[in-house]
Amino acid sequence: MTTLRTMDDSDAPAALERRWWSRVPLHAVLVIVSLIWLVPTIALLVSSFRPASDVNTSGWWNAFQLPFGFTIDNYADVLSSNNVGQSFLNSLFISIPATVIPIMVAAFAAYAFAWMEFPGRNALFILVVALLVVPLQSALIPVLQLTTTVGLTGTFPAVWLAHTGFGLPFAIFLLRNFFGALPKEMFESAYLDGASPTTAFFRLVLPLSVPAIASLVIFQFMWVWNDLLVALILVGGFPKVAPLTVTIANMAGTLGQSWHLLTAAAFVSMVLPLIVFFSLQRYFVRGILGGSIKG
Amino acid sequence: MDFGIAILAVIVVVGVPSITVLYALATERVLQLVPVRRRAGLRPWLWLLPGFAFLIVFLVYPTVYTIVLSLMDRRSKSFVGFDNFLELFGQDKFWQAIGNSALWLVFFTGITLAFGLLIAVLTDRVRYETAVKALVFIPMAVSFVAAGVIWNFMYAFNPEIGTVNAATVALGGEPQPWLFEWPRNTFMLIIVGIWMWVGFAMVILSAGLKGISAELLEAARIDGATEIQVFRRIILPLLAPTIAVVGTTIVIVALKTFDIVYVMTGGQFDTQVIGTLFYQERFTNRDAGTAAAVAVLLLLTIIPVMIVNIRRQQAQEATR
């Protein structure tokens, strides 16, 4: 648009200067916001690498004075005791199936919703949309009774199945919108060539939907990895299968002031989500957008 | 033990995905067994079956059953009508939880939206936009549990440990026990929620903002509109639908709040919210009836949002 401003060339430098000054508050606000958002995480990270005696006697901001006294003892400590190492594995064993199952199952349903005709299609999809916001709390007591009845309480499958149920509405919703936007002609020519709907699903729909599926994978993985409530209720009393969130919540209750251990344990739980986030940020954001704005 | 882990890893990484794929392949085999003219009618139901089985077993049936349980006694043995609800309404701790949830609803939702919008609008004007947005978004990737640890550490009383009290002392104040006095402690917990969720609001609002035509904004500026006028008269009205979408999502998060309170105060010092009251009733007091009643009340408060979502979906369907 600068080309439109040729009439008053003499004013241009003055305007530019005014702009530069007027932008100082803008930069100041953004720098302050960035600091506020970053400081809590930095405090945690720095403290997790300081010796216990330092953490409990001087602020983390003192850690940058010479001589540096950083250590990885806290990590060695929490990983070998306090069940943190085992819980890390448990979190993985919970999160992987609890991500794969709902997405596959949702993809089947989304495929039917997007490309098959059947009576009640609209009504059933509205049910899915309604279930999107049902709070976990209103389903958990009967789910716990159910898993207890069939002997699954305290096992991984209980958490897999529950997370599948709870994650499905969002997954179906997101995938159905994405599948529905695929070109119709593609299916017609595939069927003309004699492909079955199953072939079309595996050879066309899934490969073309990799971006949507990727964002969903990340979203569901993060949600399950970070979940506390479902795990607490279904496997909370079973340290051998409890995920990191449950273990750390317990530590926060019992080791309240052992900051060197708590910060290290918390950071262990954050490593994987942060790696996923930084390497796949684009997909994560797309998943959020796809779920909220028209897909 | 290691052997067990190896078997588990195989089940987890290979077994589970294979089962789902096998199911899809099996559908066509099943369809071979029925007459050709029936196949097209039957096929969608086979594809829907696993999904709806899960939805019914883990969401529909439990929600309905929770409503039934809310009308039964603490051991779910006999029908007690609305006694659980009446009992709740007569208890201070219930109104405490409702009051705190209302604070969450108003302040968490309002401030998260306002901050998300502010950061989205401000970062839109600078070249280091991506960096600021990534920083603000990081807490979204962290669990509420980790966030609880992070902020308990921030709020620690000793100004030699807690960053917030260190700052307070540096500014000439007295160190404060931030999490012990109501209502201050609830606001301190709400800050943690805001810290986590502003990134979510920002990302969506920012995407909405990019959808507003730059020419339109520039035209208004050339016509002499101030930045504030541009924001109020153009950006805000055009973003309204997006703000509504983000707002409804955050309202749900506010109503369902559980983890932050559970980890940081355990609901003590009058910080209880509906989500933690539910847990306390079920697992500390072992009262399934009252816990279910709390869950039903939570569900009732969420129904308006559900209706809004369904309307929105139908409107989108009409334009498809």
Structure commentary:
The complex is a heterodimer of chains A (295) and B (320). Chain A is mainly α and 295 residues long. Chain A has 14 helices and no strands. Chain A has helices at residues 12-22, 24-48, 52-55, 73-80, 84-115, 121-131, 137-149, 156-180, 184-192, 197-208, 210-226, 229-235, 244-254, 259-292. Chain B has 320 residues and is an all-alpha fold. Chain B has helices at residues 2-32, 36-69, 83-89, 92-123, 129-137, 144-154, 163-170, 184-210, 214-222, 227-256, 259-264, 274-284, 288-319. Classes of the chains: A mainly alpha (295), B mainly alpha (320). At the A-B interface, helix 2, helix 5, helix 6, helix 7 and helix 8 of A face helix 1, helix 2, helix 4, helix 5 and helix 6 of B.
Name a few traits of the molecule:
heterodimer; A: 295 residues; mainly alpha; MetI-like fold; 14 helices; 74% helix; B: 320 residues; 77% helix; globular
Principal-axes shape call of chain B: globular
- The total tally of domains of chain A equals 2
CATH homologous superfamily designation of the largest domain in chain B: MetI-like
Structural class estimated from helices and strands of chain A: mainly alpha
Estimate percent helicity of chain B.
over 70%
Present the secondary structure layout:
The complex is a heterodimer of chains A (295) and B (320).
Chain A: H1 12-22, H2 24-48, H3 52-55, H4 73-80, H5 84-115, H6 121-131, H7 137-149, H8 156-180, H9 184-192, H10 197-208, H11 210-226, H12 229-235, H13 244-254, H14 259-292
Helix pairs in contact in A: 2-14, 4-14, 5-8, 5-11, 5-13, 6-8, 8-11, 8-12, 11-14, 13-14
Chain B: H1 2-32, H2 36-69, H3 83-89, H4 92-123, H5 129-137, H6 144-154, H7 163-170, H8 184-210, H9 214-222, H10 227-256, H11 259-264, H12 274-284, H13 288-319
Short structural summary:
The complex is a heterodimer of chains A (295) and B (320). By secondary structure, chain A is mainly α.
